[in-house]
Structure prediction request, 530 residues.
Amino acid sequence: MFKVEDLKYRYPKGEHDVINGISFDISEGEIFGFLGPSGAGKSTTQKILIKILGDYRGTISYSGKDITEFKDDFYEDIGVSFEMPIHFSKMTAMENIDFFLKLYKNNADVEELMKRVGLWEDRDMMVGEFSKGMKIRLNIVRAMLNNPKMLFMDEPTNGLDPMNAMILKDMIREFRADGGTVFITSHIMSDIDQLCDRVAFIVEGKIIEMDSPRNLKIKYGKRSMTLEYKENDHTEIVEFPLDGIGKNKEFLNLLQTKEVETLHSGETTLEDIFIQVTGVKLKNEE
Amino acid sequence: MKSRLAILVKGELSRLNKYNVFSISILVALIWGIILFFLNEDALGSILPFVLVLDATMMSVMYIGSVMYFEKSESTISTMLVTPTTNKELVMSKVIANTIHNAFSASLIIIVFIIFKDVDVKIFLVFLGIISTTTFFTIAGLCLSYFQKDFTGMLVNIMILMFGFGIPMALYQFGVLKADFWEYLLLINPMQAGAEVITAAFVGYEFTYKYYFSLAYMIIGAAIFYYGVAIPKFQKYAVKQSGV
Prediction:
């Protein structure tokens, strides 16, 4: 659906490229995660893909056509959820939505969307009176009100409580299930891990790793099994190689004779992989 | 679907109302109306056009500046950029809405004086003057807003306009600057051009080349600002507001 080849970008007054020749493609119906610390080039890449920033080098095609050939009808196809609230604060939520709705040919069922994010009851409230979380949820409605084929989401769960973050993640999955494609930029690894079919790590404008979360975990994870069991009054921890675990007599013996407290495979997290690959700690960058 | 430009203009007008810009302009018109109401007819003849000129020039810059400031502070420009509207439509809608708004507040003052003071004014000429002047200064104000960092920046811009163009125009209008030299020099002053085309609607105005020059100045000047600055610089301005 989207194909990016050798993309490079330098800001007008910049001395060097902030995007250094990245290439990737996003298939139709895929949730593609773009991960990286602040300043890595995530938002810049997204702004180029949604045609806010021009003057880039390289090629970007959407549905087989160079994005520079698209006119404003490009925006009939896409929805963008910005990280910061982007509403007229002295207008109600519905007034905001109604205004944007009229600009599109294709309109979603706003009532259903507003109910889904829990804002229908507050639709006549001034957006200025909304909490940050409510404004972010309204961003999601704004992004989806034209029934887009593709969603661009910048840090979509940032500022949401766990319950609303879960609702949003469900909405993203349903959007994908209905044939939609999603591009997510985030530094919150757990969201990416739960949602994305594939992820790309970007650091200093370069993609340094790209694969599915599962494959990355297998590739960078430790092939081991850690067993914790009770021995007298303390806990013993033993690590076994994962290969041939079913025939490992010591392991099987401990399972049969000891009181097992925990049993973990050496699977790693995306955050650990990121640190391992880049040497950059994401949380320190927030 | 209705014309996108019509939707955008309606949205702009609605926001002028919601953000109380409309209320403020009506209040300003009311204050001017009260002051003018107590003036004698001789003074009214020169002060009324002057008030209309101030409304069409300084106030136009101030209103468009505040609209742009609100948009900047609420980051709404980002989401406008990802709608199927063109930059031309976005800019044009602001110009049209602000011109309608200012023409409305000027109309209030004129109507009050036609009814209560029996002021003799050529309706077509006064609206031609107000609309052409308001359009010019709205576009100029829009261009200035691209370079203003905050609300204080907007006020500084207005003060510069006031001192640079407004005071010489006022001194000339009230006969303080009398030499022929000023008559020619002030032809390049956009506020003087606005004063010329608005004053032409009042009794006693003598039509000379200055009227036609000033009217052309407002129309051609507005087109130059629109196509030369307002449209080409809009994308860069909007991208900057979206956090890049």
Summary: Chain B is about 80% helix and 0% strand. Residues 4-241 of chain B form one domain. The longest helix of chain B spans residues 87-116.
